[in-house]
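Why do we bother with holo predictions? Because pocket geometry can differ from the apo form. Keep that in mind while you read this record for flavin mononucleotide.
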Amino acid sequence: MIFDGKKIVLAISGGIAAYKSCELLRELRRKGANVRVMMTPGAREFVAPLTFAALSEHPVLTDAFALSENAEIEHIKWARWAEVIVVCPATANTIARIAHGFADEPVSVTIRAARVPIVICPAMNSAMWEDRLVQRNVTLLREAGYRIVEPEQGPLATSSEGEGWGRLARLEWVLSALLAALQGEQPLKGKKILITAGRTEEYFDPVRMLTNPSSGKMGFALSEAAVALGAEKVVLVHGPTNLPAPYKVQRVPVVSAADMYKAAMAHYEGTDILVMSAAVSDYRPASVSSEKIKKLPGKLTLELESTEDILYALGQRKTKAIHVGFAVETFDEIENARSKLRRKNLDFIVVNNPRDTGAGFGTDTNQVAILDAKGNIEKLPLLSKLEVALQILKRIL
Ligand SMILES: Cc1cc2nc3c(=O)[nH]c(=O)nc-3n(C[C@H](O)[C@H](O)[C@H](O)COP(=O)(O)O)c2cc1C
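The structure, written out:
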């Protein structure tokens, strides 16, 4: 699990979004984290500590003056215990207190005593978020090295507030920011990564197409992993999918292989690492009917033509970038992947067999082997796609 054994302090301040922290806590625990919760006095007006104590299976820190049974100072103990502290939600008031060095309630005093990454997730109404002093305080925190998960635009807490900026970032983004904070070194710092993901759709009339079951999960996981490892720019060219937008990733949605070819070529300039995980159609219908093809007795023959070979084309443009390809093979996986690696001028190829349990299309897990141009092969165990993605990027680095 991606947060296995990670020690995370969840700090909650007094905003409406405090109820969302219950779900954040559950999600972190589902992903293997060890979580402790501390609350400002304001937060206790919104959700009772009992809820967080039960969900974290640990007492909640609500008193800046608390001592443990052995007379240790609780907030110092918690500050030393944590690998990361996440303030979620962070109110305008708590942001101000942290930014100006206060240390008079559990959250600010623990943060003062900590030497670990701090992730701040502001949530407030749009007028508060746009307030110049709030913005100045956020800038102060950012300059001091705190990681800010910017709030989103959308419906605010009450109907009178309508829509606006200030809504707590979606929990997937908070989790991505935590994953990044826990990576320690940032080996992709300053790098541009171009990733392709998902399937392509090749229409032969207005309502029918040739495609495959690729969900895009592997490529989306790669983009999240690239952000977690500190990449400066991550561009994700992806086919049709329902997956939510990953944190800090520039998405370029496309439909057909031809669209994907154009988008990949257009975004390749300056790429340091190219990872082509998309399941691009090798063929498309040679002609597209402008009207729906009617059902007639007998057979229907579709003539197919080859699509653009994106990996090959980018291989021709390759100068400094590392190229990583993916191969889905149902037989002779290693031999077929090795031949693809050579033909497409790749540095690495990641191969998986969708017939293996837990691997391939649509699953949340994958089991892959990584081959390099020197002939080395490394087989990874069955892991979540996000763990596979982190392993792939760490290996190629
Ligand atoms: C119903 C209600 C909802 C509130 N929601 C927010 C909010 O979403 N964000 C915020 O910054 N402040 C919000 N406030 C104001 C804070 O609760 C107030 O500033 C409080 O002092 C925050 O204390 P704390 O930061 O120590 O938890 C809200 C207040 C009320 C009464």
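The chain has a mean pLDDT of 94.
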